[in-house]
Amino acid sequence: MFQKLIVFLFLLPSILFSQELRRCGFLEAQDYLFKTDPETKAKVETAINGFEKQASSQNKNNSQALYTIPVVFHVLHLGGAENISDAQIFDALDVLNRDFNKQNPDTVNTVGAFQGIASDCQIEFKLATLDENGNCTTGITRHYDNASNWEISSSFYKYTWNRTKYLNIYVVKSLPPGVAAYTFLPGTTSAVMDAVVVLHNYVGSMGTGSPFGSRTLTHEVGHWFNLQHTWGSNNQPGVACGDDGVGDTPLTKGFNFCNLANSAICTSGVEENVQNYMEYAFCSNMFTLGQRNRMHNTLNSANAGRINLWSPGNLQFTGVFNPTVACAPKADFMANRAVACIGDTVMFTDYSYNGSVSTWEWSSVSASGSSTLQNGALVFNQTGSAHVKLKITNNNGVDSIIKNLVLILPAANSGSNNLIQSFEVPPFPDNNWLSTEPKYGSAFLTTSLSARSGSNCLWVNNFYDTPNEPVAFYTPAFVFQGFSPAQLSFYYAYAQKSTNSNDRLKVFVSTNCGWSWNQLLDMGGASLTTVQSTSNTAFFATAQQFNQGLLDLSDYADEQVYLKFEFSPDMNGPGNNLFIDDIMVSGVTGLKEQRRISGLRLFPNPAQSEICFQGTGTTIFHYFKLLDISGLCVFEVLRPANSNCFSLPESLKDGLYFLEVGSSSGTQTFKILIRK
Ligand SMILES: [Zn+2]
User: Fold this and answer.
1) Catalytic residue chosen out of the listed positions 82, 220, 272, 566
2) How far apart are alpha carbons 628 and 634 in whole angstroms?
């Protein structure tokens, strides 16, 4: 209750007063099309001109009493509130049917000038009961998918059903800022993107939805049937008087708020249609007769196959006639972690849909047992990418799904200290060194085309075979006991394809079997390049073109750590090859036995120009050695005479150093920050 109140208070002022709240991303989406497909602008203009002619002519095909449209909702969720209930979707459909058939009680609020043309559009929407393959469906699909955090890009439309047979509505968790929903005019986008995308809390009037947001779909489906915003599609509302190509909607600048009293702005004495569903005024309650005719013309046009939607054959095909009622379930699930170690228990949450489930069976060839609980748990005994299968049944049938969600890391002690991995032998990847496969493109592979030492190194073929997502490799486990300081050294080589290339290399460390990762390094673009100039041919590195990367791991002393190298290709353009070689995990200052010097204190830290020390008892100090992060000694003093302090050379650069103190009671290394 408290939370609802906060949401309400938060929304109310932005609705009433904010000029920025938008409920439709139609213009942004169209901009995206213009950018990605140069021909689209012409397509949109042709489409709009064509529709103007259609709209101005009489509706020729009005014999149809009611157009029935089969609908499928694809709910993309991450297990949260965005996985809205079936009831919320039924409610959204009720709102859509009410508004398109002028059954909304607020028609009484329609201002006098428009009462005569407020129209029953005679279009009804029904959930499909047969999918594209003729299988029983509730007309609602649900997918645990990161695409729930949606971006306007063709790769996000993974589940679209044939747009000539169904109206596809994607329900998602987030959209670009300020956008509640968007779609495209018919014939202006690809078949797969010809769908409505809407935030879960703008679906229906209940659940996560609200009466206020519930007409978002009315507006979007208006676009899907060829309606533009009442002010046209070239400007934001409130900028310039514009025409939507519909004869009975007056010229208007469009409204961000419900300005009924003073709405004759563009043409003196002509009231504008503030309450139109294709406005942003948030008091909408009507389509006009002209808009109805334009939508009917669209439904009688081959454009984007809209004419097929309501045909008797399609209503049969989609199960809108003689609906089936009881479906076999569809399997879906999620793991509670993406990375685990051998012997760890991984929990799985059932997100099956399309019918109640009677039995569950969880299994994996990488796991020792199986589970028959709704939410299963498996213990893994093989390293690598684990394929997990969920099989479900009910009286109407069986379904199963295999997902590849968990990477199993090797056990403790799988990596030896002072290890050097130069990718000569053994083969990579193996049971200890793991590599992730992208859906498309190159993973980290060994190659003999470049090497810093020996004849092999690791390569991401990012020139000819760019991966479609970040790729990573994982090291075995290391325990740095007795190492001071522990560090990671590796060599990398990369050339930018152009100065805009922003391919990135990141390195992470985990102390909890991959449950969480701390980022140690992020290099990209020019900071990743190891050569003088860009290369617009495929880059292959000579031994001299490798740079060393050095990372301090002294914070992880005495812990078991796994390291992850991740390469993220620049998704805005083709990049170039990356090579990695000679990974060394060690303490460079060696395996020297370290004995704590009791009571020794060093100050100040950070140090500026001098370092002072204080010991206890009879300890005699022999030497102080300052080492840089690579373990190189940069300064050394023998026991300072008659003083407990010594000066640092002026030439020292700011940064992290290690101070090794040799004394009669032992040797100890300290981390010292020098800041001048
Ligand atoms: Zn819109």
Assistant:
1) 220
2) 7
